[in-house]
């Protein structure tokens, strides 16, 4: 159903107001969370400082107990020591495990937890010494040496405990300052985003809407003027018809005039119809040109991909499922053969294989695949780098340089570029079957005797400036056995929405399906994958480019 201009204008205003309201709510939530965080940090710092003060008071009160000639009786000093000791123990336990009664969350960072673990020994010794003092009766002469021993222990370990407590307070203060900076950064970002949205709404919504409103009012006013003119003309014609009712010649003249006006209007209608038909024809031609260009680009892209018959020279069984979403694809695979270094046996060789998912779909993604393939040729074939982790490191650096991401860290924070790719690379050594793997947001699935072994790559992407330009990738080495089946794939299959379920296929379900069919010959697995994809997708639009590659050792 077509939306009227009035309803479209109303919807536009509601969307604009909704965005402003949403950003205001987000700002309020961030401010509320920031205030809660500040309150918690203040409470934590106050109690940590009080714990240090209580420790000093415990030591001072214990030293007083060693000299009975004091203004206060021994029992009164012991009672005061017990009260301070109970609060000291409660705060220490709260710092380590949390205590809602005194407002301690108990969720420490790894750095704070490390300091607490280091001070726990000195705390335990101090605690035992204090407990010994609290259980001693001063009147018993035999107990005074025990007090002396306990006080010596306090003096010896108090300095260690105080040092750890000072380190803990400094760590809490540092973490509170970092959280405050993050909150301020988020609040500043939301404020800038709000101003940007308001500016965009002013430029693209409010100002065009006002113009359209003025145009609508002007059009209505012009239509009213035309209607008034037509009404006057109609009244005059009716008057003439009434006056010259018996004069057929006059009536014929009026009819001829009306016919002439109708002819003019009909000619105008025909002219506009022909103009619209011509525009429609031009649009059809342009659309055909675009489709033909994409198909030609697809043939060029496929020509750059390695032929699977070359892949068949290395393994007995293999398969590939390659389904671009928009004629050209943002997914690609690549492989090449390299002779093993320092080997005199002609059978010793390495196969370097890559499966990648580039940012975007269609033409942007296809351009990234061409760039990725060219850079892999440069790194592996020309520079002779065969270690998968080193290949990824060099590829990441070159992608950032090619896309001009090598700017300052401050600019990276502002722009947060994410162009690049998720990619997995394996090096298969023949004939010993040593497989080395490295992945950037990519995994290698190995199925052995019906059991899945998932080799996960590093959780960083190639080219993204969310991370530093120099990235280190984990290298995984394994020994393939006869019958092992290996799978490398992008996220297109698992992210596909079903027509009936309206949900994604999901990666866990996809792995389970691969395990179920892993014992079948690989060409049959390809057919099963294609049938599963078509059945799940139904009439729904393909969500992403799809690439699944497998081989059996």
Task: Give a verbal description of the structure.
The chain is α+β, with helices and mostly antiparallel strands and 553 residues long. It folds into three domains: 41-182; 244-300; 308-552, 4-Layer Sandwich (Phosphatase 2c, domain 1), CATH 3.60.40.10. It has eleven helices and ten strands. It has helices at residues 5-65, 74-97, 110-134, 144-243, 248-304, 308-311, 362-382, 388-402, 409-415, 507-517, 522-537; strands spanning 317-323, 331-339, 349-358, 421-430, 434-440, 443-448, 451-456, 476-479, 485-489, 546-552. It has a five-stranded antiparallel sheet, covered by helices on one side. Strands 2-3-4-5-8 form a five-stranded antiparallel sheet. A hairpin with a 3-residue loop joins strand 4 and strand 5 (434-440). Helix 1 runs antiparallel to helix 4 (144-243).
């Amino acid at each position: 159903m077509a939306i009227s201009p009035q309803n479209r204008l109303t919807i536009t205003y509601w969307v604009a107001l909704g965005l402003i309201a949403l950003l205001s709510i987000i700002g309020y939530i961030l401010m509320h969370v920031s205030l809660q965080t500040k309150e918690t940090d203040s409470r934590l710092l106050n109690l940590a400082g009080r714990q240090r003060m209580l420790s000093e008071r415990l030591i001072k009160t214990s030293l007083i107990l060693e000299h009975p000639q004091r203004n206060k009786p021994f029992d009164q000093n012991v009672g005061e020591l017990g009260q301070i000791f109970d609060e000291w123990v409660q705060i220490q336990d709260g710092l380590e495990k949390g205590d809602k009664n005194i407002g301690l969350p108990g969720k420490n960072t790894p750095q704070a937890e490390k300091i607490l673990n280091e001070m726990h020994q000195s705390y335990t010794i101090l605690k035992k010494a204090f407990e010994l003092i609290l259980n001693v009766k001063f009147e018993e002469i035999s107990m005074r040496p025990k007090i002396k021993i306990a006080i010596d222990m306090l003096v010896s370990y108090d300095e260690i405990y105080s040092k750890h407590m000072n380190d803990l307070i400094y760590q809490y203060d540092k973490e509170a300052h970092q959280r405050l900076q993050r909150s301020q950064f988020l609040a500043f970002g939301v404020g800038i985003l709000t101003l940007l949205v308001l500016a965009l709404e002013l430029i693209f919504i409010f100002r065009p809407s006002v113009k359209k409103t003025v145009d609508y009012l002007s059009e209505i006013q012009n239509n009213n003027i035309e209607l008034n003119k037509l009404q006057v003309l109609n009244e005059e014609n009716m008057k003439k018809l009434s006056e010259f009712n018996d004069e057929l010649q006059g009536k014929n003249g009026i009819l001829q005039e009306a016919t002439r006006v109708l002819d003019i209007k009909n000619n105008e209608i025909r002219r506009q119809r022909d103009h619209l038909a011509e525009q429609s024809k031009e649009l059809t031609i342009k659309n055909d040109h675009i489709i033909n260009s994409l198909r030609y680009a697809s043939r060029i892209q496929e020509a750059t991909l390695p032929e699977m018959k070359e892949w068949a020279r290395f393994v007995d069984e293999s398969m590939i499922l390659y389904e671009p979403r928009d004629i050209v694809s943002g997914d690609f695979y690549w492989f090449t053969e390299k002779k093993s270094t320092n080997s005199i046996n002609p059978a010793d060789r390495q196969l370097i294989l890559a499966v990648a998912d580039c940012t975007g779909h269609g033409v942007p993604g296809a351009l990234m695949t061409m760039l990725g393939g060219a850079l892999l040729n440069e790194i592996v074939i020309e520079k002779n780098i065969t270690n998968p982790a080193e290949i990824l490191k060099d590829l990441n650096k070159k992608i950032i340089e090619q896309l001009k991401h090598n700017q300052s860290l401050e600019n990276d924070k502002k722009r947060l570029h994410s162009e690049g790719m998720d990619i997995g690379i394996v090096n298969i050594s023949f004939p010993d079957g040593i497989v080395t793997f490295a992945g950037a947001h990519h995994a290698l699935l190995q199925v052995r005797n019906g059991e899945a072994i998932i080799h996960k790559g590093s959780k960083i992407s190639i080219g993204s400036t969310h991370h530093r330009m120099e990235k280190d990738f984990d290298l995984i080495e394994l020994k393939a056995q006869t019958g092992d089946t290996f799978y490398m794939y992008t996220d297109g299959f698992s992210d596909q929405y079903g027509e009936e379920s309206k949900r994604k296929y999901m990666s866990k379900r996809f792995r389970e399906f691969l395990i179920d069919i892993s014992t079948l010959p690989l060409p049959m697995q390809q057919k099963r994958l294609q049938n599963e994809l078509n059945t799940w997708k139904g009439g729904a639009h393909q969500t992403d480019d799809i690439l699944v590659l497998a081989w059996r050792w």
